[in-house]
Amino acid sequence: MAARDLGGRPVLESVYSVIALVFVLVACAELCDAATVVDVYRLIQYDIAGAPFGSRLAGLNHHASSLHFPPGADLSRTVLVIPVRDLNLGYVKDYLSQRQPLGGLLFLLPQIFSFESKESSGNGEELLKNIVMELEQLLIHTNIPYPVYFAFENDDINTVLADIKRNDESGQPATATTGGYKLVVSTTEPKKVASPVISNLQGWLPGLKADGDPNQLPTIAIVASYDTFGAAPALSMGSDSNGSGVVALLEIARLFSLLYSNPKTRGRYNLLFGLTSGGPYNYNGTHKWLRSFDQRLRETIDYAICLNSIGSWDNELWIHVSKPPENAYIKQTFEGLSNVGDELGIKVGLKHKKINISNSRVAWEHEQFSRHRITAATLSELSTAPGLFENTGSLADSRNFVNEAAVIKSVKLVAESLARHIYGHQGKNIQIFADEGSLAVNPSYIRSWLDLLSQTPRVAPFLSKNDPFVMALKKELEEHTEEVILQNEVLDGMFTFYDSTKATLNIYQVASVTFDLLLLLVLGSYLIVLFSFLIITTRGLDDLISLFRRPPSRKVKTA
């Protein structure tokens, strides 16, 4: 009998151990089940001449709260979750200006601002777009000493937000004592981007030179800046600013390559196509590209047309110039575009703005040409010069707000005007790029490139020398032009950028301290009971009592 008890003892102990392990695992599973993972995009961090702007931290590990927190609450260890749909911009502006302590900010963007969205824009969405653009300008021009992230609304995060609001409205905001939701972003602190590169591309369509003519052929340049800048670099797609300009340039290059491929229809003008970088930074890439030209090339350029934001207009475009409207080339360009515009039902206006050579701020790309004594103009839907980092590919500049028909009309306007000038058909109602002809604008080509640009962030400091997107642009230019050159330059040192632009946010539903203490008490009681039961069944009640009996003193033992 004793032998049977001794043999069964290990089996009995193993059974109890397994039961205890299962209990602990089930408890852990219950505690860790409510976690949601969300892709988040950090507010840009940069310096201008040493002055800090944007979000200065990246790591996050705080409780979440909505805007329904009680007055005077300590938010130094709290992340405010703010849907843009419910945004009170005045409140955010006041909070930032007062520099009150905060654990972090998480802004929830409507899905219409994502590339995957198939929603069409309406009046309500236009209002949201304006709010996002205003919020973006506020954030990128402020030094914010805590993490700021953006995320897109979805069912999971909306459910979490509804719970957070319910708890806050009941007077129980999330704290270590009450529990709630905890937002965690585990990432290294941002590091400076060393020697950020800007890459320029150029391609030629050489004109047909007459036999025995010793003179250089004149050149017309068509230029567009392709990079972007926005509050969140990983979301700065710039579908309109300046994706539309890039698409238009590529389609114009495609159309004229068809004309120039045949000696009978090749014009007596060289066409120079330039895709420049560094646009948001005073068109720094354009400056370095023009500086690389030799004097002979500069002298052959009659004029340049810069394409900027031409995908969201209704019936009016603007030509912006630095030289007086009386200048022969400016007058010729304006009249050519206006005449074609009248035929297409497009109103073309002219805006003249002198440049200040002593001011380093460059608002339009054509101003860099003017500084190099080259006549140039910018065609844009914008009637006034944008401010620094304004209209450079914002969060709200998404595919849903670009009108393909507007881009197609812009291409027709520029291509027809150029062709009439090159072939001497000014003032004649001749459609070289007629809709039904072999030289018609290709809507599918425009749509495919718009789609690609609308899902490709292009903030220059985060693009490498051989970035796949830059290589795709180079390959496309090589399809339609000759002597394609990729020029890599270092962005001027007054701008400093920091990495950590995208992260993963883990949202945990955490229990309160009271719950933790109660759980600890239950587990402790369970382990004591289990321990006592194992001792009684294996050794007997006397052995259990002896464990708690006070041992005899040393004097008693000596006696």
UniProtKB/TrEMBL annotation:
GO terms for cellular component: endoplasmic reticulum membrane. GO terms for biological process: regulation of signal transduction. Gene3D superfamilies: Zn peptidases. Pfam families: Nicastrin. It is a single-pass membrane protein. The chain crosses the membrane at residues 517-541. SUPFAM superfamilies: Zn-dependent exopeptidases. Belongs to the nicastrin family. This is Nicalin.
